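Sequence, please.
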């Protein structure tokens, strides 16, 4: 209770400070609001709204039960999630954030997943949609359609790896489906899948017109929330930058990034991406004179983290259910690290060339003392090994912490 009061007081003081800054910088606030609204209307609304409506209709028609029966043999052993989570996985990867959170909350409401299974599901199925990744980031921001392949492999491949890690989250919790015919659920059966879809459609009972109306209304409400959050965080980021508050974060990242072999010029883009994914991804393509590999690594980290705007959207959706936000938060950070490491690993095989893993050419590196004189390939392999070790340790620590009583996660 004391911690909740302290958090509430901190949020109240932060909102009051932000209100003062908006009054202090009215022009910047207005311009940032218009910019955020343009991003929502030009990019997010046309790419997300149709998927929201389609997913609602597919739920009403029982597609979730159909895919659940088909994917059950894969989802259970790989991710410890019922087959119904396969629908969320497919729609989350196809539609982008925060579709998977909305669908997972719906599955939890229908008691098709347990609390722990729903949290695992949201943790690794929240991703960027291919339209945004290809059209907006690769073509629009970077002007390089070839970049879409390596970004997609790192981003979605990293999400699947996070799903493998999250299968150990609350491993002792009971699953949803404990049936006498458990052996038959391991076999793919198209007939059983069609029967499950038919029964779900009969149980729903809504006509096509009513189903479409409710899908449009529900999707418009969610898009309004998404747009409001994008505009809000766009304004917050602008006034914090104008007031100089962000300088400390910029300075910290400018010191940290060169220590791991990345350009310090990416600090502003990464900090911006911590708040809003669209603004951060756009900023990651802007710096001049930086190898494309590093800018792409920053972009895929931002896409995988999602930004506080996406986090707020997901938290607002999860708040309608008993699914907790903290597992999602840790999974997003791990996804960002894993995706960036994967991109550095697969860059040369996919793109055909890779600069040295550092800020210096081989000739310059040979004249420098210390680790920069180590061959580039060895440094890349060492960095990847250290990343995997750190991720393994972090996953074990997080698993033990999340296994504490639920009062620490509420």
């Amino acid at each position: 209770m004391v911690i909740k009061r302290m958090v509430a007081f901190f949020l109240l003081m932060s909102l009051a400070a932000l209100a003062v800054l908006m009054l202090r910088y009215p022009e910047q606030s207005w311009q940032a609001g218009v910019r955020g609204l343009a991003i929502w209307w030009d990019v997010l609304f046309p790419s997300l709204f149709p998927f929201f409506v389609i997913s609602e209709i597919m739920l009403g028609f029982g597609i979730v039960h159909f895919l659940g029966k088909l994917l059950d043999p894969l989802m259970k052993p790989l991710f410890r999630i019922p087959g119904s989570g396969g629908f969320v996985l497919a729609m989350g990867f196809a539609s982008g954030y925060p579709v998977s959170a909305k669908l997972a909350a719906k599955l939890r409401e229908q008691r098709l997943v347990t609390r722990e299974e729903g949290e695992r599901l949201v943790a690794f199925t929240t991703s960027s949609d291919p339209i945004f990744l290809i059209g907006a980031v690769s073509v629009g921001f970077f002007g390089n359609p070839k970049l879409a392949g390596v970004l997609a492999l790192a981003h979605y491949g990293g999400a699947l790896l996070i799903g493998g890690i999250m299968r150990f989250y609350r491993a002792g919790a009971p699953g949803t489906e404990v049936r006498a015919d458990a052996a038959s659920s391991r076999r793919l059966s198209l007939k059983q899948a069609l029967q499950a879809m038919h029964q779900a459609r009969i149980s729903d009972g809504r006509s096509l017109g009513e189903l479409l109306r409710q899908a449009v209304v529900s999707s418009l409400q969610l898009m309004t929330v998404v747009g409001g959050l994008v505009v809000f965080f766009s304004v917050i980021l602008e006034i914090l930058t104008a007031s100089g508050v962000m300088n400390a974060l910029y300075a910290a990242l400018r010191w940290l990034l060169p220590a791991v072999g990345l350009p310090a010029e990416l600090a502003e883009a990464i900090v911006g991406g911590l708040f809003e994914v669209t603004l951060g991804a756009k900023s990651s393509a802007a710096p001049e004179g930086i190898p494309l590999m590093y800018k792409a690594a920053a972009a895929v980290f931002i896409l995988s983290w999602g930004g506080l705007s996406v986090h707020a959207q997901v938290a607002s959706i999860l708040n309608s259910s008993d699914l907790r936000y903290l597992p999602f938060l840790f999974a997003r950070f791990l996804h960002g690290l894993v995706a960036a490491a994967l991109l550095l690993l697969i860059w040369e095989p996919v793109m055909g060339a890779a600069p040295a893993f550092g800020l210096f050419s081989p000739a310059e590196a040979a004249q420098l003392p210390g680790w920069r004189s180590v061959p580039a390939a060895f440094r890349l392999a060492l960095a990847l090994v250290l990343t995997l070790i750190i991720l393994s340790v972090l996953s074990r620590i997080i698993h033990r912490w999340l296994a504490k009583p639920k009062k620490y996660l509420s």
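Residues 67 and 87 are 6 Å apart (CA to CA).
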